[in-house]
């Protein structure tokens, strides 16, 4: 098997469809949009699992860095604030790819790190529905291809896996997109403030067990880079700062306004959490 970036003792992967939330032209009534052969994939070998685990750990660190105002090579400029208090930033990267769209949203919420992490522990359709309603309102379907590291009693907030998801276009002139990505969730300590934090990172990968579905379902395969959520404790007990970073290449020919609109829709829902 050949694994690569777009530039793991592995648990058995989930072979069940997680969430048929929206109707699709390609979906059977009450079923997934995915073809049957998508569900029969070989397990990862130990070297493959270790390789993906290493990538996941590195990507988590990068997301934490890029979520900072002056972190990494992306410079964030404040654009506006939503009526619900979400601060929205647009990013620019020196020498970056013009096809990449950089958007970041920052908000404060009440709760504990474990509460937020639990919202991303997508173990059933109800939890995925709650997640989509708040963070990904354009979600069509999601599928866990490989569970590499599952939460345990020793590390309840740690997860690594490979997932596929499809999102609905906001315009009939632009095709729906899908993504195959490595996901990692973990705790960390902010060395600047000594505050506890939690991160959820997603980063696109090329993997044979997640082939293109453009010919069969019409989904154009996009890419996430160093994207995700960074949640930090604040000086106020029970108040968390949550930062949502998205660096996305939607691929294909799509206008800049559509790209910005698609990503900002997520921050509108993000505000209600």
TrEMBL record:
GO terms of molecular function: lipid binding
Pfam families linked to this entry: START
InterPro entries with a match to the protein in the record: Rab4/Rab5_effector, START-like_dom_sf, START_lipid-bd_dom
SUPFAM superfamilies reported for this sequence: Bet v1-like
Listed PROSITE patterns: START (PS50848)
Region (Disordered): 14-34
Family matches, as Gene3D superfamilies: 3.30.530.20
Superkingdom as given in the UniProt entry: Eukaryota
Ranges for domain START: 171-273
Name listed for the protein in its UniProt record: START domain-containing protein
Protein's organism: Aphanomyces astaci (Crayfish plague agent)
Organism phylogeny: Eukaryota, Sar, Stramenopiles, Oomycota, Saprolegniomycetes
């Amino acid at each position: 098997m050949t694994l690569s970036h777009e530039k793991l003792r592995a648990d058995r992967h989930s072979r069940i469809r997680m969430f048929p939330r929206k109707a699709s032209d390609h979906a059977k009534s009450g079923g997934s949009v995915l073809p049957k052969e998508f569900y029969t994939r070989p397990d990862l070998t130990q070297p493959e699992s270790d390789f993906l685990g290493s990538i996941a750990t590195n990507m988590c660190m990068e997301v934490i860095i890029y979520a900072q105002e002056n972190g990494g090579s992306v410079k964030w400029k404040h654009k506006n604030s939503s009526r619900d208090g979400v601060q929205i930033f647009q990013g620019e990267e020196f020498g970056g790819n013009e096809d990449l769209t950089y958007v970041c949203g920052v908000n404060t919420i009440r709760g504990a790190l474990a509460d937020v992490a639990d919202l991303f522990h997508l173990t059933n359709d109800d939890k995925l529905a709650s997640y989509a309603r708040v963070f990904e309102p354009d979600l069509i379907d999601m599928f866990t291809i490989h569970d590499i590291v599952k939460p345990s009693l020793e590390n309840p907030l740690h997860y690594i896996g490979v997932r596929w998801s499809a999102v609905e276009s906001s315009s009939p002139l632009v095709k729906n997109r899908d993504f195959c990505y490595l996901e990692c969730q973990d705790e960390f300590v902010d060395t600047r403030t000594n505050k506890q934090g939690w991160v959820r990172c997603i980063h696109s990968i090329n993997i044979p067990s997640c082939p293109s579905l453009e010919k069969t379902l019409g989904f154009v395969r996009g890419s996430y880079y160093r994207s995700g959520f960074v949640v930090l404790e604040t000086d106020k007990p029970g108040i968390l700062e949550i930062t949502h970073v998205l660096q996305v290449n939607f691929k294909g020919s799509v206008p800049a306004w559509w790209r910005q609109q698609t990503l900002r829709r997520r921050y509108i829902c993000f505000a209600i959490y």
